[in-house]
Amino acid sequence: RIRQNLREKHARHIADLRAYYDSEIQSLKQQLEANLLFEGLCNLYVLNRCEQLDAALNEASARIKALENKNNMLEKQVAEWRERFQALSSTSKVLQERIEEMRTTHKEKDNTISRLQSRLKELEEAFEKAYKLSDNKNTRLKEENKMFQNLLGEYESLGKEHERVKDTLNTTENKLLDANTQISDLKRTILKLEAQLKQVEHENTLKLRH
C-alpha cells in the first residue's frame, strides 16, 4: 500500500510537472508567434517606409536635375544678354564719338558760313558803292559780280552741305537714342535673369540640403 501510494503520488507529481511544462511551452509558443507577427509588421512598415523614401529621393533627384538644367539655361541666357549688352555699348560709344565729330564739323561749317555771309555782305556793300561811284567801271563791276556769283554759289553749296550734315546728325542722334533704349531694356532683362538665377540657385541649394 505504501508503495502504491508513493507510485500514485509520483504519478501525480509527474502529471503536474507535465502540465506545468506543457503550459510553459504553450506560453512560449504564443510569445514566439506574437514576436514573429510583430517582426513581420515591423519589416512590412520598414519596407513601405523604404519605398516611400526611395520615391521621395527619386522625385528630389528629378527636381534637382530640372533645377540644374534651368540654372544652366539661365546662365547661358545671362551670358548671351551680356554679350549683346557689350556689343550695344560699343555701338553706342562709336555713335557717340561720331556725333561729336559731326557736331565739330557742323560747328566749323557754321563758322565758315558766317564768315562767307560777312564777306558777302562786304562785297554787296562794295558793289553798291562801286556802282554808285562810276558807271564806266563795267569791267571791274563784272569781275566783282563774277566773284560775287562765285561766293554766292559757294555759300549755297555750303548751305546744302550744312543741311545734309544736320539731317545726318539728327539720324545719328535718333540711332543713339534707340541704342540707349535697348541698353536700358537689356539692363533690366539682365537684372531680372540674375534674380531668377539666384532664386533657382537658392531652390537648388535647399533641395540638395534636403
TrEMBL record:
GO cellular component, one term: centriole
Keywords: Coiled coil
Coiled coil listed as a keyword: yes
Keyword presence, Transmembrane: no
Coiled coil: 50-203
Highest taxon of the lineage: Eukaryota
Name assigned to this protein: MPP9 phase
